[in-house]
Amino acid sequence: MLHADIPTLHPRPENERLILSLVRQADGLSKAEIARATGLSAQSATNIVNRLENEGLLSAGKSVRGKVGQPSKPYQIAPQGALSLGIKVGRQSAEIALMGFDFQFQKHRRITYDYPVLDAVREHVLTGARDMIDQLPPDQAQRLIGIGLAIPDALESWEGAIGAPCGSMAAWRDSDLRADIESHFAMPVLQMNDASAACLAELKLGKATEARSFLYVYVGTFAGGGLAIDGRVYEGLSGNAGALGSMPMKIVRSGKGEQLIGAASLHDLEMSALQAGVDPQVFYGETALPDEAERVFATWLDIAAPALAFTFVAGQAILDFDTMVLDASLSPAMRARLVNAVHAMLPAHDTRGLRPFDIVAGDLGLRARSLGSALLPFQAVTEFELRFCQTNSNQSPNGQ
Question: What is the mean pLDDT of residues 48-75?
Answer without folding.
Answer: 85
